[in-house]
Amino acid sequence: MSPAPPGGFEPPAYPYDRLEEAHRTASAHDGGVVDLSIGTPGDPPPPAVLAALSDTDDSRGAARGYPPSIGTAELRQAICRWTEDRLGAAISPDAVAVCVGTKEFVATTPQWMKLRYPGRDTVLYPAISYPTYEMGAILAGLRAVPVPVDEHWRIDLSAVSESDAARAVMLWVNTPGNPAGGLDDLVGAAEWGRAHGVPVFSDECYAEYTWDGPPRTILGKGDGGGSRGVIAVHSLSKRSNLAGARLGWYAGDPDLVHYLREVRKHAGLMVPGPVQRVGVAALADAAHVTAQRQRYRERLERAAAILDGVGAPSPLPAGGFYLWVPVPSGDEWRFTDWLARAGGVLVSPGTFYGQAGAGHVRVAVVAPLAALDLVERRLAAAGPYRPD
User: Strand, helix or coil at 142?
Assistant: First the structure.
């Protein structure tokens, strides 16, 4: 492979690729690795979704024709119904469009916003957060500026300098937050964005797993501005265990949605037609989400008790299905390696989510209770974690 020319971009190592050695160590256990590092759903989609996935009737041309880039009318109407029923926000189908999973949207949107605001060069995002917020800015050739979080893992917008605000093409907020489970003040974020002329993109893909109160959205919140200047981003990956289908959506400010819809058409970004049909079925069913909420809550409590037993107490999150665990002695890589060696379990070091995440590990409770029981037995045999 030809090396990059001097000053050329070299992609950094993908965070989870750095866990290969720990994965090998954990896999050596009898029974294999229990992988709690990546938040990939491990539970089945609901029966109605499986039925829609297996539907081979293409009388409407969902498979053989190009699907609408913005989403079918049926899917966008289903999104509007879900948004009003679950989040209490009324939106128009004209202010909604789909994306090929929200990771794609997070990674590509900064370049479209850079074109929209040619005099600006900055993306703002939480200092402890999903790594693609930063990488999306880097891939667009923009400044990635982390914004500090407070003691409750909420973004602290008072820490943004006026110069950074003036240069920002967008601000990311994330509620419930990945990895720490904090709940941002979305009313305050909308007001801050409007006051500074900065579009606010609110990643709400864990909304159904909000534990402290009802699910939150930035839509229709704040100083009476409704959806002006804000976009909410949602996904079926976590809600309906459909990460492999790659279906998300964005909704909010009609002007911003229209702009992004048109740009994305030119880029050829389309969710496959059969997957859009599946999305309608998933959004119409709330029972499977209730069942999944119960699974994740039980696993969070179980995993927290296991970690407490080895001397690493972990508070339960305000939302999401991750434990954000303070590491005894503060060395997150050493603790990650010990968990792999002693418990056959793989977790993520906190620095995957920004340098401010040092001293923590993230535990994704995506494995069943039986797998957590296996981890507990292994760790009980190893005894408490001793960092020295």
Answer: coil
DSSP characters for 106-170? HHHHHHHHHHHSTT--EEEEESSS-HHHHHHHHHTT-EEEEE-B-TTS-B-GGGS-HHHHHHEEE
Q: Are strands 360-364 and 122-126 parallel, antiparallel or unpaired?
A: unpaired
Contact 46, 285 (CB under 8 A): yes
> Nearest-CA neighbor of 174 among 218, 196, 198, 204?
204
- Residue showing tokens 């703002």: 124
Report which DSSP code applies to 156: -
CA distance 186 to 200: 10
What span, in angstroms and rounded, lies between the C-alpha atoms of 203 and 343?
33
Bridge partners for 364 per DSSP: 322
Q: Judging by beta carbons within 10 Å of its beta carbon (0-12, 13-18, 19+), is residue 161 exposed, middle or buried?
A: exposed
Number of domains in the chain: 2
The verdict on 323 and 200 lying in the same domain is: no
Is 130 found in the same domain as 20? no
**pLDDT one-digit tens code per residue, 31-51:** 999 999 999 999 998 888 888
Place of tokens 């128009």: 92
The CB density around residue 345, as the number of other CB atoms within 10 Å, is: 28
pTM of the model: 0.96
For residue 148, what is the domain's CATH number? 3.40.640.10
Among the candidates 283, 315, 349, a domain finishes at 283
Tokens 């959004």 found at:
283
Q: Residue 388: inside a domain, yes or no?
A: no
Question: Are 253 and 345 within one domain?
Answer: no
> For residue 145, what are the contacts with CB-CB under 8 A and spacing of at least 6?
122, 123, 124, 125, 164, 168
Residues 6+ apart with CB under 8 A from 103: 132
Q: 346 pLDDT band (50/70/90 cuts)?
A: very high
Domain boundaries, position 323: 15-45+287-382
What digits encode the pLDDT tens for the residues 104-148? 999 999 999 999 999 999 999 999 999 999 999 999 999 999 999
Report the chain's C-alpha Rg in angstroms: 21
Q: CA 26, CA 339: separation in Å to the nearest integer? A: 8
Q: Are residues 209 and 323 in the same domain?
A: no
Say which CATH number the domain at 372 has.
3.90.1150.10
| Residue at a domain's end among 225, 249, 283 | 283
